[in-house]
Amino acid sequence: MRSHQISTFRLKRKIEKAFIRQQYQFDCGIACLSSLVRFFGGEIRHEELIEISGTNEEGTTIFGLYNSAKILGFDAEGFEAEGVDNLKELSDPAILHVTINSHLNHFIIFYPTSTDSFLISDPSKGVYFCKEEDLELIWKSKALLQLKPGLKFEEIGNSKFLWFNWFYKLVKDDIPLLGASIVLGTAISVLGIVTSIFSQKLIDEILPERQVEKLVVGIVLVSLLLLGRGVLAYVRGLLIVRQSKGFNIRMISGFFGNLLRLPKSFFDTRKTGDLVARMNDTRRIQQAVSYLVSEIVVDSLLVVVAMLGVFAYSSQVGTMVALILPFYFLMAYRFHRPIHTGQQSVMKSYALTESHYIDTLQGIGSIKTLNKEDRFDILNQKVYGFFQEQVYNLGIVGSKFGFFSGLVGVLFSISVMAYSSYFVLNSQLQVGEMVAILGFTGMIIPAVGKLAMANIPLQEARIAFDRMYEFASAEQESVIAKSKLPETIHSISLENVSFRFPGRKPILKELNIHLEKGKLIALLGESGGGKSTLLQILMKFYHPENGKIIVNQNQELGDISFSDWRRSVGYVEQETKIFNGSILENICLDEEANSEEKVNDFCDSLGLREFFSKMPQGYRTIVGEEGLNLSGGQKQIIALARAMYHRPKALLLDEFTGAMDRNNENLILDLLQRLKQNMPILLVTHRIKPALISDYVYILESGIISASGLPSELMTEDNLLSRSCKDVLSLVTS
Question: Which of 190, 291, 198 lies closest to 247 in space, CA to CA?
């Protein structure tokens, strides 16, 4: 029985070391999967798991976890158990789908043990033993996913080296400055002990012997040394400020530059506030670098030098001091975990708070329309209150740490004072030597205290760095291409293309669509049917699950680089993004923003002169944030002008006439009839008119092409287009 207990205890310790706490309410599933990867000696980035599992703000499915486990090299099997007793038959860990708080879907891990205990790893709570009746209450679905490492399971690789390599690239330019700062800090520390040594000489020699000459010379020398120490401190401060500026610029540039080059799917499940919060974490990392150089290294040197000074005067007092110092670090180790957990909670809640504020401000129009200011005020107060609660909890831990640190410091000072006084009374130390020792220990106590408390800012920086590195190390879109884009795009063909988001049901099933120059092709379908997703596949934002896309009948889209393809394909989204600035800047989006004449001539060639001439300041009209000063239809026309200004070889349009009035819609549809002679055009819509003026129509329903043909042919059959026309006619006649 005892050997079973030891075995279970060791298993629990191993599980606790591998445990990953969920970051948000929706990522419990991938936290479980990540914990199992670590349990079996592997390693996986949290952000990569989000992507391959299809985790979003609604969470993930057990099917998504199954697919992810397969990708990671696990042998995974899904079951529906009859009851809790079935878990006792398992030989490998399993992810259980449970229900908590009466209605919330949640995932936990069950680990089989050598006893009848139910050992649970819950990403929201931790690792604990669970009673059979308690597990029965929450495991209502009886669904489980059993996992064990397969032959393809990858063990721990060089991720720590990659982590270090990324950080080294950030600081390598600062090494000369940091080195100079350390040298100056060392000099400052050495000069700092001058006062203690002079005090000893003053009390034991100069004053008793009334050596006035030495007194004057000593005071002058000490004054010069202390003045020099102040100058060195000033120079060192300038170096640190200069290093901070360069480091912050490199880190933000590197982080944001990497962020811009990540796949669009990366941003589908990320909140803007979280991204902004992680960029703000740069400050914590820089503070830690400065703290490491300006405080930790210097304080360490100061402790060493001061300890040597104490030993030089009394080996007995020095030994006592050396025996007391480890208590500081033992205390720091005791507070390591609660501080680390508290800092993680503060950073996550800060990101959540920032996301809520951004989301609220972006939706201010809807809030005011529905008169919901009070509701959102209360909601954001709750979110911010939760953030402050985490700050408060961390502050309590920090205060406790500070109290015990101060208590040890007081005991330390009293012990040194009493011990050295004993030696003075026994004529083993002179009074001046005791004063010098107290001066040295007066330097040691705050230095060791800061070293012991260095855990707090360093852990905060480590968490911040991990959060930034998690995004910075995410796989970017590949710039390598197998073939070059042709000079002209004559056709684009989708052959049996299917698509699903990871862990979800199929959205598109075996689509066959052909686009060609000279024809305006319409894709007609109801909202939410996958039309926009299809365009994003054509833009290489997502990859088809099956099938292929062929360009000019002989070249696969996958072989063409992302940048070449997107430079050559004009894409107008359903929700047009208008940037704060002028119309001119929104059309150009590059260094040619001042080429008003060039833009004017180009828009004239499209027949848009009259449209832009009606703007208050023409192309120099300021649109406001998010195009505040524009109507929806105006935004769409600007977006089309932007797409065409970059001379595309094909054009993809997503419901882009939906907000236009009749005159502007007619203007744009006439323009498309002219443009189709130069490029393939796909017009995605749920409106009848654009479909009727197209050369060919595909009807998308329930993820499949239910009908296709010329508009005139489709009108004679029973399909979405003909039914929509009949509905309109029936409304008119009634």
Answer: 291
pLDDT at 509: 92
The pLDDT tens digits of the residues spanning 361-379 come to 777 766 776 677 888 888 8
Please give the model's pTM, rounded to 2 decimal places. Answer: 0.69
Contacts of 501 (CB under 8 A, 6+ apart): 54, 507
Spatial separation of the C-alpha atoms in residues 609 and 667, rounded to whole Å: 12
Q: How far apart are the C-alpha atoms of 411 and 434, rounded to whole Å?
A: 18
Give every strand in the sheet of 546-551, ordered side by side.
508-516, 491-499, 546-551, 555-556
Cα 648 to Cα 671: distance, rounded to the nearest angstrom = 15
> What one-character-per-residue DSSP string does 580-619 give?
SSBHHHHHH-SGGGG-HHHHHHHHHHTT-HHHHHTSTTGG
Nearest to 470 by CA among 226, 163, 711: 163
Question: Confidence band (pLDDT; 50, 70, 90) for 493?
Answer: very high
Residue 75 burial (10 A CB sphere; 0-12, 13-18, 19+): middle
- Stretch among 179-183, 386-390, 600-604 having the lowest mean pLDDT: 179-183
Query: For residue 43, is pLDDT > 50?
Result: yes
**What's the pLDDT score for residue 251?**
73
Mean pLDDT of the chain: 81
CA distance 169 to 251: 10
What pairs with residue 130 in β-bridges? 118
Q: Which amino acid is at 626?
A: E
Residue 2 has pLDDT above 60, yes or no: no
- C-alpha angle with apex 162: 160 to 165, nearest 5 degrees? 110
As a whole number of angstroms, the distance between CA 65 and CA 72 comes to: 10
Identify the residue whose tokens are 């926009």. 532
Q: Read off the pLDDT of each residue in 519-532 and give the average, rounded to a whole number.
A: 88
Pairing outcome for strands 520-525 and 546-551: unpaired
The token pair that represents 379 in the structure block: 């909601």
pLDDT category at 590 given cuts 50, 70, 90 is low
| 114: DSSP letter | S
Contact 120, 130 (CB under 8 A): yes
d(CA 71, CA 403): 50
Contact 467, 281 (CB under 8 A): yes
Choose among 647, 646, 710: nearest CA to 679. 647
Which of 39, 29, 13 has the alpha carbon at shortest distance from 66? 29
For the CA atoms of the chain, what is the radius of gyration? 35
Mean pLDDT across 602-622: 86
518 Ramachandran zone, left/alpha/beta (phi>0; psi -120 to 50): left
- Long-range Cβ contact pairs of 133-140 (< 8 A, separation 24 or more): 135/84, 136/83, 136/84, 138/98, 138/99, 138/100, 138/106, 139/84, 139/96, 139/97, 139/98, 140/98, 140/99
Distance CA 323, CA 618 (A): 79
pLDDT in the model for residue 455:
65
User: 104 pairs with which residues across the strands?
Assistant: 100
Residues 6+ apart with CB under 8 A from 258: 471, 472, 474, 476
pLDDT for the residue 115: 73
Measured CA angle at 528 (ends 23, 51), to 5 deg: 30
Task: Give the model's pLDDT for residue 726.
Answer: 81
